[in-house]
């Protein structure tokens, strides 16, 4: 030809995203959580590690809670890390506030990286109604009115 025809590149380049494997774990405090409008609460630690077992810091996790005993969950999960991100140990601490609603609570925590690799874990715990016939609880509720620091009853 005369050197004017265009050269069209028909090769297709496929971009592979890197695959990373993460481990998420949950640790739920084992104290009794009464449906007492957040006098007693449950602490949950979510920890994110990479495939080598090293903590991943300064990333956000997505955490949701649902109460399996009711249609509408009134309890809330609060991220109590100062910046809301994983700390140097790869950990975010959440506090579950029951807002007066008992039930079986499921927490699900998910991490998704920028390449859409994902890790997810779920666990559950109970929020129980205070037993008014239980002496310890009666004592405990009575004490609430006159002490500043509350010791949770050992039932």
Main sheet: strands, sense, barrel? 4 strands, antiparallel
Shape: elongated
The SSE string, one letter per element, is EEEEEEEEH
Mean pLDDT across all residues, rounded? 87
Tell me the β content: 25-35%
Order of neighbouring strands in the sheet with most strands: 1-3-6-5
Termini Cα gap: 93 Å
The percent of residues in helical segments reads under 10%
Number of strands: 8
Question: Count the helices. How many?
Answer: 1
**Low-pLDDT residue intervals, each spanning 5 or more residues:** none
- Structural class of the secondary structure composition? mainly beta
What's this model, at a glance?
This protein is 6% helix and 35% strand.
């Amino acid at each position: 030809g005369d050197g004017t025809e265009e050269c069209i590149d028909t090769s297709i380049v496929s971009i592979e995203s890197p695959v990373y494997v993460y481990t998420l774990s949950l640790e739920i405090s084992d104290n009794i959580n009464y449906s007492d409008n957040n006098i007693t609460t449950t602490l949950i630690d979510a920890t994110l590690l990479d495939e080598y077992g090293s903590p991943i810091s300064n990333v956000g996790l997505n955490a949701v809670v649902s109460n399996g005993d009711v249609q509408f969950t009134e309890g809330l999960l609060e991220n109590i890390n100062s910046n809301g991100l994983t700390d140097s140990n790869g950990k975010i601490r959440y506090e579950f506030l029951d807002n007066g609603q008992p039930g079986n609570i499921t927490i699900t925590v998910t991490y998704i990286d920028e390449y859409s690799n994902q890790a997810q874990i779920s666990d559950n715990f109970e929020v129980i109604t205070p037993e008014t016939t239980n002496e310890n609880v009666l004592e405990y509720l009575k004490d609430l009115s006159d002490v500043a620091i509350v010791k949770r009853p050992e039932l």
